[in-house]
Amino acid sequence: MYDYFLEGKDNYPADREAAEKVLAAAPNARVMARENRAFMVRAARYLAGEVGIRQFLDIGTGLPTTPNLHEVVQAVAPDARVVYTDNDPLVLVHARALLTSTPQGRTAYLDADLRDPIAILTAGEVRDTLDLRQPVALSLIAIMHFVEDADDPYGLVAQLLDGLPSGSALMLSHVTADHDPAVSEVAALYRTGGIPTAVRSRAEVGGFFGGLNLVTPGVAVVHRWRPDTSAAAVGDGGLRDAEVSVYGAVALKP
Description:
By secondary structure, the protein is an alpha/beta fold. The chain has 12 helices and 8 strands. It has helices at 2-5, 13-25, 29-51, 69-76, 89-98, 117-122, 124-129, 153-162, 182-192, 202-206, 229-233, 241-244, and strands at 55-59, 81-86, 106-111, 137-141, 169-175, 213-214, 220-221, 246-252. Strands 1, 2, 3, 4, 5, 6, 7 and 8 form an 8-stranded mixed beta sheet that branches.
């Protein structure tokens, strides 16, 4: 569905049918997806460039949609390494076929569930690709809203971060109904379709960053997180928060 919102090619009839129902309830869904993707690009570029992180653990990869995380960070640092993680075998088939690393860097693909952090951190694909003694950027882009409170989302993120050393980072985005009540209707549609979904407030999204040092501007609607001049030039700078309805932030582990 996310790929369909981004007008990509890797989606299926069931995805398109469900996505059209979402668009009927929340016509801004395409804007939300686009701005969320743009946030990922800026956040990853910041971590690879200004912070100098060379290792990324991306959980909840989804079907490949350009630009992908490794394309962003390897454009800054060709030797960057990325482990993509998802619990959908179809996603991993596409990822292995489409997400190819630079010769200097490396990509790997792990079939694992976000709700089992220990299995992720101890997986051979992670241990063979990343050096967990060196800083790692944990990427949780548009995935935590699919983890309901009963599954302890804050505990899951804390466990993942506990396995990473000082100097590591968290980049996370999450839908919210703070600015547009229709987002709650979208969440209800997802739940009706069997997909657990939870919208959270700014304070609740901020809870994922407990014990970390938030990078300025902190938790912000994603189009306001360090917007680049090119985005403002094409009009993204004029978007209303209600059109975007996704919070994002980046934080560093002391």
